[in-house]
């Protein structure tokens, strides 16, 4: 497997609308594995294909599900690392609950944090890495991370939506969950 380079806004791919995945071939599987490895190494809890300069509607996330919310799993990472999700051609079909403000960080915008208001709960439909249709209803932190990754597929960054952005101190960076 290969560690991929995470791009910043100086690379225009980060700002482009990504294309739907149409071919589930070995090349796609390699990209997914490399993205999972890159996310773990960063370390991050989410990584979208445009962040590694691939204009495809695909992201990976590594999250503990809150009880009773999920119905999918793509892999079993070591204990304590959370479950790994691979979401291809995702579509958020429902946003519910009040908007909640939470602090986000992005691997493509190192050293900055921002407060972003997002709906509390979502239903997301997507294809897994084998092209099987899946649906997940989730809320809280996981819903936030999935919305952040979903925005990446349309070239949208958290700084576009943030009410406030600030620079993070070095010691805080280790405790930050990057996405
Ligand atoms: Zn991000």
CATH-assigned homologous superfamily: Peptide deformylase
Bound molecules: zinc ion
* Radius of gyration over C-alpha positions, nearest whole angstrom: 15 Å
The structural class is alpha+beta
**Mean pLDDT score:** 90
**In which range does the helix fraction lie?**
10-25%
- Contiguous low-pLDDT stretches (5 residues minimum) are 67-80
Question: What kind of sheet is the major sheet?
Answer: 6 strands, antiparallel
> What is the strand tally?
6
Strand content: 25-35%
Please tell me the total number of domains. Answer: 1
Our measurement of the CA-to-CA distance between the termini, rounded to an integer number of angstroms, reads: 21 Å
CATH names the topology as: Peptide Deformylase
Shape label: globular
Give an overview of the whole structure.
This protein has 179 residues and is α+β, with helices and mostly antiparallel strands. The protein has one domain: Alpha-Beta Complex (Peptide Deformylase), CATH 3.90.45. Helices cover 21% and strands 33% of the residues. The chain contains four helices and six strands. Strands 1, 2, 3, 4, 5 and 6 form a six-stranded antiparallel beta sheet that branches. A hairpin with a 6-residue loop joins strand 3 and strand 4 (112-127). The longest helix is centred in the N-terminal third of the chain and has 16 residues, at 26-41. The radius of gyration is 15 Å and the shape is globular. It binds zinc ion. Zinc ion is lined by residues 106-108, 148, 152, 179.
């Amino acid at each position: 497997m290969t560690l991929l380079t995470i791009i910043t806004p100086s690379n225009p791919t980060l700002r482009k609308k990504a294309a739907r995945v149409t071919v589930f071939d070995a090349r796609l599987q390699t990209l997914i594995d490399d993205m999972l490895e890159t996310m773990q190494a960063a370390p991050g809890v989410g990584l979208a294909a445009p962040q590694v300069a691939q204009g495809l509607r695909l992201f990976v996330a590594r999250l503990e599900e809150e009880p009773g919310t999920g119905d999918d799993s793509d892999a079993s990472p070591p204990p304590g690392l959370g479950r790994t999700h691979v979401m291809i051609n995702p579509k958020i079909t429902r946003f519910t609950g009040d908007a909640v403000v939470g602090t986000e960080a992005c691997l493509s915008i190192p050293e900055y944090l921002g407060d972003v208001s997002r709906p509390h709960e979502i239903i997301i439909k997507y294809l897994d890495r084998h092209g099987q249709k899946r649906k997940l209803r989730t809320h809280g932190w996981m819903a936030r991370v999935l919305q952040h990754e979903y925005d990446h597929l349309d070239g949208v960054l958290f700084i576009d939506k943030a009410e406030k952005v600030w620079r993070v101190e070095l010691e805080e960076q280790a405790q930050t969950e990057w996405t």
